Amino acid sequence: MNKPLILVVEDDASVRNLITTTLKVHDYKYLTAANGNLAIMEATSGNPDIVLLDLGLPDMDGMEVIRTIRQWSSMPIIVISARSEDTDKIKALDAGADDYLIKPFSVEELLARLRVTQRRLSMMKNDKESESSVFTNGDIRIDYAEGCAYLKDKELHLTPTEYKLLCLLSQNVGKVLTHTFITQKIWGSCWDNDVASLRVYMATLRKKIEVSPESPQYIQTHIGVGYRMLKVK
Question: What would you report as the CA-atom Rg of the chain, rounded to the nearest whole angstrom?
């Protein structure tokens, strides 16, 4: 498996050096940026596979960097931040981050998160190469090959995580998927059973596909268990 190119966005030189040294020792290629503007420029011109992003940047908040990148790319973004509140984690995920690592962190945990993300990248690449079918359920249509979803033939503007959730549910239509199963499939074992984050994403997805999110037609909640996509005629 080829090692991905990683963009390290960190203004603290000591932390940045720790991360880049770790990457170098483990044969990862990397780019660096010490502020948000440079991060956006490197993400655009350097074509990295994964972004490691600090939120406390000198020129802008890291949330803005996430939102900017998400306007044109679904590249995995792993937040590395000293902000440890659940609300901070959920805000970052809602903005489009794929993972969240709290400072101080161990080198082993960072490498584990990278391995999980790398496996997801490989799986996504294989899926794109092998998947050519189109899923239809009621007014929802998902073109797996194109990576697009439609509602009444109008393209849905989904975040990468919302799209992955919709695909996972569609590929298991009629089956109840547990919180643990969904979080492991979407974020990997490091985020096992992160129900709070899952609820946030499920709520935003429902707002985009349901006529009445309070009386959902497509996604059914099984309280304390998980979710199921209903088959709609």
Answer: 18
Phi, psi of 93 (to 5 degrees): -65, -40
Contact indicator for 55, 67 with CB cutoff of 8 Å: no
Residue 87 has pLDDT above 90, yes or no: no
Classify the C-alpha dihedral 114-115-116-121 as positive or negative: positive
15 and 119 both lie in a single domain: yes
Identity at 87, one-letter amino acid code? T
Q: Are residues 168 and 181 in the same domain?
A: yes
| Alpha helix (H) residue ranges in the chain | 13-25, 36-45, 62-70, 86-95, 107-130, 160-170, 179-187, 195-209
Tell me how many domains the chain contains: 2
> Cβ contacts of residue 112 below 8 Å, gap of 6+?
190
pLDDT the model gives residue 128: 53
